[in-house]
């Protein structure tokens, strides 16, 4: 008599990438509220970014050192300067702006803004001719329409707050120091968030060329975290030069938010994303990104009692719809690349494609 596996194990084996990416997005969603509580407690967002990426670099270093020992190329001065620029464009500048925007807006808006990175990356890639665009094809039109819808959603969130959605009940978890509308500067925070997303979009395009010369993802991530933390430390020292005591943090929300952001978000989530990319492909990983926005909105409204505005909700919906349209168009490009690779491999090896179209026998 065969021993049947528990239902939980079957579900886990079948949907492991889906479950892991969902948990990763929940982990990313929680960081907004933990950091908001830390900022309201008095911690500087610039200091938070500095400490967080130092923690991330320390956490990632052992994995990078041992797992990529054989494939890691020699680090030249020119390559280090390239990593320096990548760290500036992808970590120290945009992440500082990103978390600074949290002080002026809300977790829901900041999380929603992050979804336009794909659209902005597409626009910059087309402008620099890294991305082909065929307006005679339905998928090409879908990419353009999706990009325009996403940008329209961001414009709505930035310029139109609309009426406030009435909370059904009081906050189940109260964020210390929350001071209502007096702390918010919607336009300033929105501009910071959008500028951060533009910088991240440029970073995604730049790192593609760097990976060709330094094909060690964990090592490159560790270097960028460390260099970005150093850059952020210099910037923080300039901004907080009148408050040297700001560098001291105790066993409170400031320490826990730093450890959580460094280990969970900048460490474990990156590892999970890399693993799921290998198993299911980059499109699958990218398509789970809006889950973070949904989780943030649910927690903000039902658990933390944050203020939600009609403009933010409608704008976020537009951004997500536009993102999926863009990904639909990109999925067609990815499938064409896979088909081309199969045909090229088939022609060069003269193989017979059998049950698995990706498996050749010479």
UniProtKB/TrEMBL annotation:
Start and end of every EamA domain? 18-157, 188-327
The UniProt record lists the keyword Glycoprotein: no
* Membrane-spanning ranges: 20-39, 45-67, 79-100, 106-128, 140-160, 186-206, 218-239, 259-276, 283-302, 308-327
**Bilayer topology term:** Multi-pass membrane protein
Q: Where in the cell is it found?
A: Membrane
InterPro entries, from UniProt?
Answer: EamA_dom, EmrE-like, WAT1-related
- Extract the Pfam families matched here: EamA
- Coiled-coil stretches are none
Keyword annotations for this protein? Membrane, Transmembrane, Transmembrane helix
Which family would the database say this protein is a member of? Belongs to the drug/metabolite transporter (DMT) superfamily. Plant drug/metabolite exporter (P-DME) (TC 2.A.7.4) family.
Q: Which PANTHER family match?
A: WAT1-RELATED PROTEIN
Q: Could you tell me what this protein is called?
A: WAT1-related protein
């Amino acid at each position: 008599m065969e021993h049947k596996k528990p239902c939980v194990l079957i579900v886990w084996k079948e949907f492991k990438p889906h479950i892991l990416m969902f948990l990763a997005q929940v982990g990313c969603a929680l960081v907004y509220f933990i950091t908001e509580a830390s900022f309201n407690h008095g911690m500087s967002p610039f200091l938070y970014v500095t400490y967080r990426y130092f923690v991330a670099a320390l956490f990632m270093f052992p994995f990078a050192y041992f797992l990529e020992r054989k494939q890691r190329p020699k680090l030249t001065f020119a390559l280090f300067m390239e990593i320096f620029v990548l760290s500036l464009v992808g970590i120290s500048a945009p992440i500082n702006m990103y978390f600074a925007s949290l002080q002026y807006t809300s977790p829901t808006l900041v999380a929603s803004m992050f979804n336009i990175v794909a659209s902005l990356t597409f626009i910059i890639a087309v402008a620099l001719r890294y991305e082909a665009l065929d307006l005679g094809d339905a998928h090409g039109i879908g990419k353009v329409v999706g990009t325009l819808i996403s940008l329209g959603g961001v414009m709505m969130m930035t310029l139109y707050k609309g009426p406030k959605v009435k909370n059904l009940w009081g906050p189940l978890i109260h964020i210390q120091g929350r001071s209502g509308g007096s702390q918010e500067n919607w336009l300033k925070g929105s501009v910071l968030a959008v500028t951060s997303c533009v910088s991240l979009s440029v970073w995604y395009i730049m790192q593609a060329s760097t990976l060709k010369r330094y094909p060690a993802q964990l090592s490159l991530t560790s270097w960028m975290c460390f260099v970005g933390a150093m850059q952020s430390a210099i910037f923080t020292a300039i901004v907080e030069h009148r408050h040297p005591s700001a560098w001291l943090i105790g066993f409170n929300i400031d320490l826990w938010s730093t450890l959580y952001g460094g280990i969970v978000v900048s460490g474990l989530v990156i590892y999970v994303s890399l693993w799921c990319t290998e198993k299911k492909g980059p499109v699958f990983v990218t398509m789970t990104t809006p889950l973070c926005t949904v989780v943030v909105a649910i927690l903000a409204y039902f658990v933390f009692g944050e203020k939600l505005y009609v403009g933010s909700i409608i704008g976020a919906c537009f951004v997500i719809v536009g993102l999926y349209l863009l990904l639909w168009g990109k999925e067609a490009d990815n499938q064409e690349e896979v088909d081309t690779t199969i045909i090229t491999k088939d022609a060069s090896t003269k193989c017979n494609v059998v049950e698995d179209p990706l498996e050749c026998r010479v």
